[in-house]
Amino acid sequence: MNAKEAASLLGVHYKTILNMINDGRLSASKSDSRDWIISESDLAAREQQIGDKEFAAIYTHMAVQLIEKAHNRAIKAAMEDLIETARATIKAKDNRNELNQQVKRLQHALDAYKAAEAFTHTVHSIKKQAEIDE
Questions:
Q1: CA nearest 123: which of 72, 51, 83?
Q2: Which position has the higher pLDDT, 127 or 52?
Q3: Coiled-coil stretches, from where to where (predicted)?
């Protein structure tokens, strides 16, 4: 398998695999196309030798990816709700009662979107800290 496949299998960044190869923690050879080739047996042997710190880095990386995906889904959903509510508000312009309800719904949708966007800074901080810890 190549280095990207090994990284995916171990749940680490591709550069982590390259670092492991370069410092001798993982055996690999170069193919004719100059890609790193790692045997499954070498990868399995390395997997058994991984220390607690590396396990923590692997799980931290996986957790950060899950947080980013969930955050991106939340932002997308909040934005879609905001757009849908804004359209409904425009359609209700001739009905005062419905317009008032839509304006309240629009405010809630805007608050939800702002909250999702505000969490962006936290996600970036988590990601940055995880990169430092690796």
A1: 72
A2: 127
A3: 89-116
At residue 134, the pLDDT reads: 52
Asked if residues 38 and 6 have their Cβ atoms less than 8 Å apart, the reply is yes
Task: Return the higher-pLDDT residue of 133 and 30.
Answer: 30
| pTM listed for this prediction | 0.53
Annotate 86-111 with b (16+ C-beta within 10 A) or e (fewer): eebbeebeeeeeebeebeebbeebee
Alpha helices in the chain (DSSP H): 3-10, 14-22, 40-49, 52-91, 96-133
DSSP bridge pairs for 37: 2, 29
What is the C-alpha separation between 102 and 91, in angstroms, rounded?
9
Rounded-to-integer distance, Cα 4 and Cα 124, Å: 24
Paired tokens of 106: 């629009």
User: What are the φ and ψ backbone dihedral angles of 119, each rounded to 5 degrees?
Assistant: -70, -15
Crossing angle of the two packed helices 3-10 and 40-49, in degrees rounded to 10: 40
> Whose structure tokens read 């947080």?
67
User: 134 CB contacts (<8 Å, ≥6 apart)?
Assistant: 13, 16, 57, 60, 61
